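Can't attach files on this board, so I'm pasting raw text. These are the components:
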Amino acid sequence: MWKWLHPYAKPERSYQLASTLLPWFAVSSIITLLIGTVWGLAFAPVDYQQGESYRIIFIHVPAATLAMSAYMAMATAALVAMVWQLKLADAAAAAIAPVGAVLTAVALITGSAWGKPMWGTWWIWDARLTTELILLFLYLGIIALHHSFEDKVLAGRAAGILTLVGVINIPIIKYSVEWWNTLHQGATISKLDKPSMPIEMLAPLLINILGFGLMIGALTLVRFRNEVIDRNSMRPWVRDLVAQESK
Amino acid sequence: MNQSISYWQTFSNVLKRDLQVAIRNKGDIFNPLVFFVIVITLFPLGIGSESAILTRIAPGVIWVAALLSALLSLERLFKNDYNDGSLEQMLLSPQPLFIMVFAKVLAHWLLTGVPIIIIAPLLAVLLHMEESAYGALLATLVLGTPVLSLIGAIGVALTVGIKKGGVLLSLLVLPLYIPVLIFATGAIEAAALNMPYAGHLAIIAALLAGSMTLTPFAIGAALRVSTN
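---
Top answer:
Structure tokens for the assembled complex are below.
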């Protein structure tokens, strides 16, 4: 069953696969993000309570949701790297970390911009906001650990341990709005059978979540290719690649 | 060769050794404690000595100072052993790493956590803390400071091989300390209002149980990475 996976443990094959997948992810994410964002910002109906300012949801919710998903993806890669000793999984984890950190920052900034008109304050020490901030700190710690080792293999292992320890924070963020009575509203799209928002609002939101996911995929692929090249810069196939490019 | 050493002997040997080393360098025990006291005395000087304000901020100040002093003392947990090579010998020994790591962390807690617990009520008096909150303060410190040592040890183990690991250590460890801080200060504030705080204590106890069972594995794995 796993036979088809084995060739991709070789950096060269992985690099080629990433290069093949990249345009698909990039193009589809641009298309879905354009559709979702334009629909959400220009055509979706106005919220009767929050007015126009609710429209930031089309950026805020995808960024916040996928910041956690990106962390789980990074943790999965770290676990794979630790259990099966696949070096490329480390490269993948290293590639996701900055993308996830930026998404978390986007979620925090858009959230605070949304909080100003709705709650009358840029920031409150509410459970959801605080745990999301911890997530950002975790991302930054992992990135810092990646950069503080000369040896990339060691850096990957060390960061992998920290990543797996930090997984404890993810369920806390996810359920913080249920465990504590907070100002932050509950999950927006948890009930797929009976959504708490009309379909005209839900559809662009879901499209944007998909678009953000594809965008993370594309950005991660770009960074993954760089990581692979960086880690294998002395290998002949990389030299061939460089020779081809510079021709 | 020493296959016959029992787990308990391993544990007590490592614990005894670490305590002995620390007692011979008394600064290791007293410096974090003095730091703890000084940080706390800075707050009344900086914020003003009105007792109403101090009563309000006392739990948070004591706990934040405890976090910082734990962080300050953590570095020596593995550093000297790493420098003189005894850490490597521990990793090579046939005894389970879990037990040795656990003994080292316990020694660290006995040397830095327990003195803080002992001196905290005195500082609480200086900060005019509510009398009903003393029990909660002690209970949260007893349950919470071992968690600080255990979680912090992961960070130290990861950074022990890096030259300037100190700043990085705080970046790695402090986010993981936040849950302990939230529930501990929550419990003390609830107790100050004469409200039940057993729920908060239960969560800190759960954090302690979880970190006692799981973090030694993470610490061991991190040490193996660092001594590579």
